Amino acid sequence: MYPNWLAQRVQMTPNRLALTFEGKSWTFKQLFDEVMNTAGTIKTAGLEHGARIAILAPSHPQLIITIHACWQLGCEVVLLNERLSDEELAYQIEDAQPTLVLVKENFQGRIGIYKKITLEDLSKMNSSTINIEEEWPLKRTMSIMYTSGTTGSPKGVRQTVLNHTTNATASAFNMGVQTDDVWLCTMPIFHISGLSILIRSVLYGMEVTLYSKFDVVRVVDDLVNGNVTRMSVVSVMLERILRELEERGENVSSRFLTMLVGGGPVPSHYLERAIARGIPILQTYGMTETASQTATLAPEDAARKLGSSGKPLYLSFIRIDKTNKPFEEGEICIRGGHVTPGYIGKYEQTTSQEKGWLYTGDIGYLDDEGYLFVVDRRSDLIISGGENIYPAEVENAILQHPMIREAGVCGVDDEQWGQVPIAFIVSDAEISLESLREFLQTKLAPYKLPRKLHHIKEMPRNASNKLLRRELREWVTSKSNE
Amino acid sequence: MYPNWLAQRVQMTPNRLALTFEGKSWTFKQLFDEVMNTAGTIKTAGLEHGARIAILAPSHPQLIITIHACWQLGCEVVLLNERLSDEELAYQIEDAQPTLVLVKENFQGRIGIYKKITLEDLSKMNSSTINIEEEWPLKRTMSIMYTSGTTGSPKGVRQTVLNHTTNATASAFNMGVQTDDVWLCTMPIFHISGLSILIRSVLYGMEVTLYSKFDVVRVVDDLVNGNVTRMSVVSVMLERILRELEERGENVSSRFLTMLVGGGPVPSHYLERAIARGIPILQTYGMTETASQTATLAPEDAARKLGSSGKPLYLSFIRIDKTNKPFEEGEICIRGGHVTPGYIGKYEQTTSQEKGWLYTGDIGYLDDEGYLFVVDRRSDLIISGGENIYPAEVENAILQHPMIREAGVCGVDDEQWGQVPIAFIVSDAEISLESLREFLQTKLAPYKLPRKLHHIKEMPRNASNKLLRRELREWVTSKSNE
Questions:
Q1: Residue B86 Rama label (left phi>0; alpha psi -120 to 50; beta)
Q2: I need a labelling partner for A472 at 20 to 30 A (CA). Which of A159, A434, B85, B125 fits?
Q3: What distance in Å separates the CA atoms of residue A181 and residue A257, rounded to the nearest whole number?
Q4: What are residue B94's phi and psi, to 5 degrees?
Q5: How far apart are CA A188 and CA A81, in angstroms?
Q6: In this prediction, does ipTM exceed 0.90?
Q7: Whose CA is closest to B337, among B169, B464, B190?
Q8: Chain B residues lying within 8 Å of A13, measured CB to CB
Q9: B385 touching chain A per CB within 8 A
C-alpha cells in the first residue's frame, strides 16, 4: 500500500504552492479542494471506484485537477493525445473501452460515438461526497498511455502506483530534491514526461509551473529570472532555448539546477552551448513502459561519456540481452518497480517481459564502467521533436493505399526536429508526396506524415524477409553525402 | 524486492565520496571493496547467509564496514551499545542468540562466554568469495536494536529492508536531498539515529563525515566552514553547539541545511538561539520501532507550533487512539512501511500492534491542523542526553536490593542532559545514594543510575495499584519550587 498521493500531501504541507499557471497559483489545499469538488461531479455523472476514464484535454490546470479527481475517485485514466488523428483516437478509445470520455468542449467533435461528457458540462454538475482512501494498493493502475511497439499497433501501457512512485523516488535519489524546487512543465501531460512531473509534485511537495505549450520567450524569462529550478525538455526544445539565450546574451539563473533532456540523444554541440549558458544537462533514457527515466547521465559525465544515456537509476536494473560483456551490443532489458505490469485491451494477454525483465526492443551496450549507450531505437523508432513515431505504424497506414504494394519508413536527421520520417514505396504507379500525405492525414497525426517519398523497385530485406530499415537510412545518408 | 543498498550505489556513483573519518576518505568503490573483503573473512569464520551476528564496537569506519559486510553476506546484525553494563549486554546477547559476536579487541572482556571473534583477528583471516545478491527481500531483517518498553525488559526490535528504505525515502521527500550533501554523524551507530544516516548515505549517494564521538569544537568548525550540510543531534548536543558558536561569535555556513533534533522536545529558547546562529532546526519524533523519524516540525512552523513534533512524514500515518478529535489526548499510534514487524527472542510472540498500527505507549494529541504534540513519553520514558531510560527497567534493578520493598523512578529536568533519573524507595532501613548506585553499577549503564534518592513511606498508586510516576515527578517539581 502507498499513501493517497494528493491527500497525504495536503495533510503535510497544505499551504505550500502546488501549481502556477498564467499568473494564478494554487496551494496544495486549494488544489485538493478543487480536485475533491471535481471528483464529486464525476461521481454524480455516474462513475464509480474502479472505472476507466479517458481524458482528452489540453495542458491546463483543469486537466491536472481532472486527473487527480479521477484518482481520488479510485478510477484509472487513459490519457489521450490531442495531436492524434481521429482514426488513431478512435482506435485507442475502442481498445481501452473506457466507461466515459471526459473531453474539453472544443475537442468533443473528435470523440465520435463514444459516451462522453465535456469538462464544461461536468463543472455545472452538483458534487457528490467522496470517501477519501487513505492508501492505495501498489498494483492499482493509475494511468494508461498508448505507445506503439514493433507491431506498429498502439498498445495501452498500464502505469501503476508502484511504477510511478518507484520512478519518483529513484529520481529524487538521483537528481536530488529541494524544498524550494519549482518544476517547469511544458511537456504534454498525456506524455509520461509531463505526467511524471505532476506525480513528483505531490510526492515531494513541489510547485509546478505549467505552460499550455512550449513558449521559448517565457521559458527563457523563467530560467534567467530564477523562477524555476528544474525542467524537462526534448532536444528540439533545448536547441530553441539555447538560441534564445544566445541571442539575448544571457545565462540561466544559478538557482536553476536540472535540465532533464529525454526523447533521444542530445547532439554534443548542444551540450557545449548549454554549459556556456550555465544549464546543467541531465540526459535521460526512458519510455512509457518505465514511467519515465530509467537511466540518466550526470552533468559531470556528459563530456567524458558523450552519447551515453548514463547509469541506471538507483531502483532500476539494466542489462543487455544474451551478453554480460562490455561493449557488446544487444537488446536493452530493464527491471525494477518502475516497469509496467503490462498492457490493456487487445494486447492484454501479450507480454514483452521475461522473469521481470522488460525487453525494450532498443539496441545498445554497456561500456566497461556500466554506462548505457543506446545504439538503435526499438523497431527503428523515429523521435521527432520528442514524439515517438513507429515506422511500422506509418507503413501500415501507407499500405492501405490501393496502389501501394510495399512500404518502408525511416527517420532522417533534421536540424529542427531531431528526426523526421521519410517513406519508401513500391507502387503500381507514380504517387506524389502530396497525394500520399493527403491520403494519410485522417489516419495519422500530422507529425507522423512522411516528409519525403522515394519510389524504389524493391525493399531491402534479410533472409527471413524482414524489412531492413537501417539500409533505407544508410541509402539516404550516402545519397545526401554525395 | 529492493536493490542491494551498497552494491547498487557502487554501480551508480563509484567515485563519489562515501565516508570521511579523521582526515581519511573512502569513495563508494573503496568502501565497497573493503566491505567485500570483510564479508569474505566473516564467511571464512564460518558464517552463512541468514546468520545473526552481534557487533560491539565503537563508532569508526571499521564498524560501518563490518555492518555492510554482514549485509552483503545476507546476515542480520544486532547492534550492541557499548555504554550498557555487562549484565545488560549479557541479557541482550542471551536473548538474541547470535551465531557469533564480532567485537573490538578492547571490548572483548565484556562479551563473557559467548562465541566471539575480535575485529582484529577477523582482519587477519583470508577472505572467501561472496556471491553478491542483486536484490533483497523487503521483509529481510537487516538490523536489531534493543529498546525497553512498558515492561522494563529490553526487547530486540527488528528493522527490515522495507523499514529502513521507507524511512530514508520519506526523509528525502521531507527535508530534501542534494547531490553535494554531507551528513555529520556524531550519533552512536548502534542507535537508529546513527544507523539511519548510513542508510541514507548509500541510498542517496551521500557522503558521511563520521566522528568517533561528539566533539563540539570540531563540530562547530565543520558547521562554520561549510564542510557539512546536515547533522543529527539531541537537545544536549544542540545546546553545546549553540554555546560554542555564541562564545566564538560565529554563525554556521549558509551551506548548512538541516539540524535534525530528536530524542525529546527542544526547549524554546534553544530555538531562538539557533535561529540567531543561522541553524535551520528540524525537530523530529521517532523511535527504534519506526527506523528513526516518523514526524518532523519544519523550521517555518517552529515558532508557530512551539512544542510540537510536527507533521507525519509522507510515508507515515499518525493517529491518537480512541479519538479523532483535535486536542484530545490519547496513545499515539503509528502506521507505515517504516514500522517494525516486531521483536526477536523472548518477545517474538508479543506485539504492540493492531491492524498495522504501532501502539507507542506515548501520550499525545493532534491539534486542529494535524500537528502532533507529545505530552508524555511512553512508560514515563526519561530521555537523558538523547539516551532512553525506562523507569521500569531501573526500578526492576533497584528492587533486586534485599532491603528495598518498593521503588519508583522518574526523570527531572537537568540543565545539561535534558533529564536525569531520580529514585524513590520504600525500604526497611536507610540506604545512601552512593550505596544504591554501587549496587546498581553492574546492572545498569552509568547514565541510568539515579542521581538522587528519596525515602518515602508508600508509593503513589492508582486504584488498580499502578505506580503513578507522574505524581512522583510533580512532588519533586513542587518541592523544588518552594
A1: alpha
A2: A434
A3: 9
A4: -60, -40
A5: 8
A6: no
A7: B169
A8: 311
A9: no
Give which of A305, A308, A271, A292 is closest to A171, Cα–Cα.
A292
Contacts of B263 (CB under 8 A, 6+ apart): B193, B234, B235, B383, B386, B387, B388, B418
Structural domains present in chain A: 2-136 (3.40.50.980), 182-376 (3.40.50.12780), 382-481 (3.30.300.30)
The residue of chain A with its CA nearest to that of B3 is A315
Question: With an 8 Å Cβ cutoff, are B314 and A9 in contact?
Answer: yes
Residue B52, chain A, CB below 8 Å: the answer is no
The answer to whether B314 contacts A178, with C-beta atoms less than 8 Å apart, is: no
Instruction: Answer yes or no: do A11 and B370 touch at CB < 8 A.
Output: yes
A173 CB within 8 Å of a chain B CB: yes
CA B378 centroid distance within chain: 15
Give the best residue of B182, B258, B314 to mutate against chain A (max A CB count within 10 A).
B314
Nearest chain B residue (CA) to A311: B12
Residuewise pLDDT in 10s, chain B (482 residues): 999 999 999 999 999 999 999 999 999 999 999 999 999 999 999 999 999 999 999 999 999 999 999 999 999 999 999 888 898 899 999 999 999 999 999 999 999 889 999 999 999 999 999 999 999 999 999 999 998 655 567 899 999 999 999 999 999 999 999 999 999 999 999 999 999 999 999 999 999 999 998 999 999 999 999 999 999 998 878 989 999 999 999 999 999 999 999 877 677 788 889 999 999 999 999 999 999 999 999 877 877 888 899 999 999 999 999 998 999 989 999 999 999 999 999 999 988 899 999 999 888 999 999 999 987 776 678 888 888 888 878 988 898 898 998 899 999 988 888 899 999 999 989 999 999 999 999 999 999 999 999 999 988 876 656 677 878 888 887 776 55
3-state helix, strand, coil in chain B (%, to 5): 35, 30, 35
Distances (CA, A) of B300 to A15, B51, B296, B314, B371: 12, 46, 12, 18, 13
With contacts defined as CB-CB under 8 Å, which chain B residues touch A176?
A: 176-179
Amino acid in the structure at residue B5:
W
Of B2, B205, B314, the CB nearest to A3: B314
Beta-carbon contacts of B348 under 8 Å, excluding residues fewer than 6 positions away, are B342
- As a whole number of Å, the end-to-end CA separation of chain A is 60
